[in-house]
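Form 7-S
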Amino acid sequence: MGNALFGRGSDKHVGSKESGLEIVVLGTGAGATHIYSKESSSSFVVLRDGEPVLLCDMGYGVTASCLQHVGRVPACTYISHNHGDHAGELPLVLAVEGTAAAAAGRPLLALLAHPDVMAELRGHRLRELHSTGRPLESFASFHEVPSGTATPVPCCGSGSGSGSGSGSGEGSRNSNGCGTSGRGSSSRSAAPGGCGLSVRPFRARHSETCYGLVIYDEGRPVLGWTADSGYDEELYTALAEAPLVLVDARAKGSAEHAGFSDLARIVSLPALQGRQLYVTGYGRQDEAPRPADGVPAGVRLARPGLRIALQPAPAARAEAQAGAGASRAGCGGAAGGDEGLQGRSKEAAAASEAGRPGGHAFEAGSGGTSGVRAAVRV
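Output:
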């Protein structure tokens, strides 16, 4: 059933292969969602020209959803924090994929995280791998991603095909030391910095050390993501550098998670004007926000299988943001962030004059790789 409750436009169905950059939502689950209801934890995967290149969080149920919707685990994974619904499947997946990569002569999967999060993953989440007698570096390559700067994603080739569809061709190693599995990888995989993506973490307001991020394509912001976070105006302002923002919100807000009642405040923030806002992390699909919850018009729902095309912010705005924004501090959930953006109304008027549509709609994903695609217009 279509869902355009909080947005305008017409639904658009597409096939499994799309050109350009997009994300596929893998799940919106909260802490107990997968354990009790079997729906995937909150996660999404970035695709370049239809190929999965970056997975964001690997909590309970995410791997199966990733295989279902995009066919394989991508070569790179970013972990926001060490809670089970965001990193619970990481040890087993690294063990399986690392062993398969070693046997096939392929490079290991790349694991990205803020240095503080990486220390917790290595010291706690991945502790069970010590029982193998092998060093952690035999399961994955570890890449610390500091806050305050954008770090290139180390590789964007296809990931291991374990549990996925068949493919052909021998693996190859790109200029970053990362590899491809010979399954239709983009030519960008061999370029410095992988496929042109980079990530910049921002501290979220959460009990566990947690970092959301902004994703950049060729240096231009395309997506902001809070990860798990309580209401935090400075975080939202920092992420609004991108034209689309994924926001964590649940029916009942807390110090660790924004509530549906906070969404009206979020969309009214000056920096969020003109941005596309999607809600995720709310739990099961029957726990998704509804108009009766007071969710403002224009807010959209992330649903498993939903495909969202990413388009960069205008160059002038991105450059102004980079020049004027102050670095968000690396401690506490209320640390500083990039300043709000100015001149949005002028850009909107220019977009209107250029004939670009100003909105889009979506519906719940169909549960397969066809999903639903929503083009983000700026």
